[in-house]
Design brief:
The chain is mainly alpha-helical. It has helices at 30-41, 60-78, 123-127, 148-178, 183-189, 195-227, 229-284, 286-307, 312-321, 329-338, 359-376, 382-387, 389-395, 398-414, 421-434, 441-450, 454-466, 472-481, 486-505; strands at residues 20-22, 26-28, 48-55, 81-88, 95-96, 114-115, 347-350, 353-357.
Length: 506
């Protein structure tokens, strides 16, 4: 499956792997599932679906070829028009690679090694897109058609809510920028947060109306009194003076309320600034938010396996690529316990390919890569993992082998295991020696340097000697670790010489 003579999955990105199988021998890649989802909730009234893929430079032509091949099929099926664009992650966002000791990794010529950053590094690509609303989805989240309904429903719902809120915010910001807003509009913007100011503004409006009514009454009185000024001059003067003082008092109240309105407007401006700052903080924390969403998604998939353990084939690639924590072990263990076909040997025939992992084998691969030590402590899976070491090592990546070896040794040091430690380590070394990682010094070094029981470690080497298993790197590390034990070192070197002679004879 991984080789070029098969499906060449060893050199293809996940986006081009066949993820889902449908009737009539139809199989879809994650890229094709994105085309389907786009047609279901991102086509709009125009029937045009705008899709943008960020891909690696070395695989871009393969993605473009698959899009060219698939577009006619899904255009006809969903009666839409696709506009597909591509971009590549910017090299300026690459991060420094680290060693197993969390130190900067350097090449043979001493230069720092840089690798593409995580999903957060793609924000620059998103910022360059000219769109009001963007649905973000990676290949790990695609689901088959039978599970798409909730995704489509809630994508549309969230988009509708976003458009409504966005339009309201834009209307408010436009009014504030233009300065053409009324007091009533200000009240609408801050209705929920400034109820006291709203009441004050209503009082101002009422008192302004009272002032206008009072001024109208004054004018009427003046006109009447003018006609009778010869009769009531003294009384008119007194009345006018009294009314003038009352008007002045009312005008002073208006000035006071005016100041309060100005303070209200200032408070509104501050609120706008706070909203903008909140928006900036959300954008800055988007990577953390994405990590939280990924974790929630991982938990959802693990819980699904508990109730649908035979769905492991669809979920395995995602879980292998995720970082699982110690508490996730219980989900996998429960799912494995509920698996229907644990009696097989973990391997099934597969047409042109000699072998592939069954559902049982896929679970054992997850246990090995994420929880090797814990699994060897549990009677349900310990023995099966040991017997399956050769296949697990062939399926794992180099970093997975080193981390799984470390996990195994750490749990062996605790002494709480469900297997014979010496026998298990011997079988693991034998499988490692016979795998494609036979020259992976880091794995051998973990066993020699971190295994705390010297007597058991020597017994492990004796098992190798008795079964005529010669591992050059392991022998060299053993000699270095026990150089003060001259008798034992001499025995190891003798086995080394015998192994060389045997190899020459062969």
């Amino acid at each position: 499956m991984l080789q070029d003579k098969g499906l060449a999955y060893g050199r293809l990105p996940k986006g081009l792997l066949k993820f889902h199988s449908y009737t009539n021998d139809i199989n879809r890649t994650p890229l094709e599932e994105h085309l389907v989802e786009g047609a279901m909730y991102a086509s709009g009234k125009s029937g045009k679906v705008n899709l943008h893929f960020t891909v690696s430079p070395e695989h871009r032509k393969l993605f473009e070829a698959l899009v060219k091949q698939s577009l006619p099929i899904y255009t006809e099926k969903y009666t839409v028009e696709y506009d597909v664009a591509f971009s590549e992650q910017k090299s300026s966002t690459d991060t420094v690679a680290a060693t197993m000791d969390n130190e900067p990794f350097r090449t043979e010529d001493g230069k720092l090694l840089f690798r593409p950053g995580g999903h957060g590094a793609l924000i620059e690509n998103l910022n360059e897109l000219d769109a009001d609303i963007i649905f973000i989805k990676n290949i790990d989240n695609v689901v088959p058609d039978k599970l798409k309904e909730p995704t489509v429903t809630y994508k549309k719902l969230i988009a509708g809510v976003l458009v409504r809120v966005q339009q309201q915010i834009f209307d408010y910001l436009r009014l504030l920028d233009e300065g053409m807003y009324t007091h009533a509009q200000i009240e609408e913007m801050i209705e929920d947060g400034f109820t006291e100011e709203k009441a004050q503004k209503e009082i101002i409006s009422q008192e302004q109306s009272a002032i206008e009514n009072s001024m109208g009454a004054v004018n009427i009185f003046l006109a009447v009194f003018a006609l009778i000024i010869t009769i009531g001059g003294i009384f008119l003067g007194w009345f006018i003076n009294r009314k003038e003082k009352k008007v002045q008092a009312l005008l002073m109240q208006v000035e006071t309320k005016k100041e309060e309105v100005e303070k209200l407007e200032e408070k509104t401006s501050n609120t706008r600034k706070e909203v903008m700052e909140l928006s900036d903080n959300i954008n800055k924390d988007i990577e953390g938010l994405y990590a939280k969403l990924r974790r929630e998604e991982t938990i959802t998939h693990l819980k699904r396996l508990v109730y649908e353990p035979n769905d492991i084939g669809n979920i395995l690639p995602l879980l292998l690529s995720r970082e699982l924590i110690e508490s996730d072990f219980k989900y996998l263990l429960t799912a494995y316990r509920n698996l229907e076909n644990k009696d097989d040997n973990g391997i099934v025939s597969d047409g042109l390919f000699a072998q592939r992992l069954s559902s049982k084998g896929q679970y054992l691969l997850l246990f090995y890569q994420h929880f090797c030590g814990q699994a060897l402590c549990h009677e349900l899976v310990a023995t099966e993992i040991v017997s399956f070491f050769p296949y697990l090592l062939q399926c794992a990546f180099k970093n997975d082998v080193v981390s799984s070896t470390t996990s195994m040794v750490n749990y062996f040091n605790r002494g709480e295991v469900a297997v014979n430690k010496v026998e298990t380590t011997y079988l693991y070394l034998k499988a490692l020696h016979e795998s494609k990682y036979s020259n992976l010094e880091d794995a051998y070094s973990v066993i020699v340097s971190k295994y705390r029981n010297d007597d058991e470690l020597k017994d492990i080497w004796i098992h190798l000697e008795e079964n005529h298993v010669y591992i050059k790197l392991f022998n060299e590390l053993i000699c270095e670790a026990y150089q003060e034990d001259e008798t034992f070192v001499a025995r190891v070197k003798a086995q080394k010489e015998d192994g060389v002679e045997e190899n020459k004879k062969e």
